[in-house]
Amino acid sequence: MGKEASAMVARRSTSRRDWRRWWWRLLPLACCLVCWVASSAAAAGVAVASLPGFDGPLPFSLETGYVEVNESTGVRLFYYFVQSEKDPDVDPLLLWLSGGPGCSSLSGLTHEIGPFQFAAKRYYSGGLPKIIYQPETWTKVSNIIFVDSPVGAGFSYAATQEGSKTSDTKTVKQLVIFLIKWLHDHPQFLLNPLYIGGDSYSGYIVPTLALAIDESNDSGDKPILNLMV
């Protein structure tokens, strides 16, 4: 085997080890969150004041919940919502999508732009991972909805087999419904500038979703979403 091939195999092996370390750090927190939300799946949102592994109360406003986006097939999308730490009444509202397709938005919340992260340790030694505040969080200047999409990603689920079937087209339609229903339950954010962002595969979804929102606004559907393009 040549040097280049050997280096490629080594990089892939390291990447797999890094992913396993990341997942084992994330698993305890995910289990705690699913216990909290399972008993109130139909609720518009539940305030989370503290998290296992984080010292003291959270220094930001965190809400989790489900939004039903298809009543006939029982599709419910799970979200984390973090209010801006600056001025939530006027700061932008950002809908953040993860890639995959099928990755949980928990990755964006804890490893990309969210307000907390796991304290770095080379090896997992058991027990709850320590969570620390992330001072470079985008929630310093914006309200962010991290949504598990498409159905089947993260804690999002369908009550029927038909509802579990997904495509980019269905994903976009469900996200439009998600935003309309979420803003109906959170009318104080209706006038905030709305932005859509994400990583990886969401690069296919974001522009299509922006177009669908624009078309929904043009058709007169209510509420009008204050999309910035």
From TrEMBL:
One of its GO terms (molecular function) is serine-type carboxypeptidase activity. It comes from the Eukaryota. GO terms for biological process: proteolysis; secondary metabolic process. Belongs to the peptidase S10 family. Pfam families: Peptidase_S10. This is Uncharacterized protein. It comes from Oryza barthii.
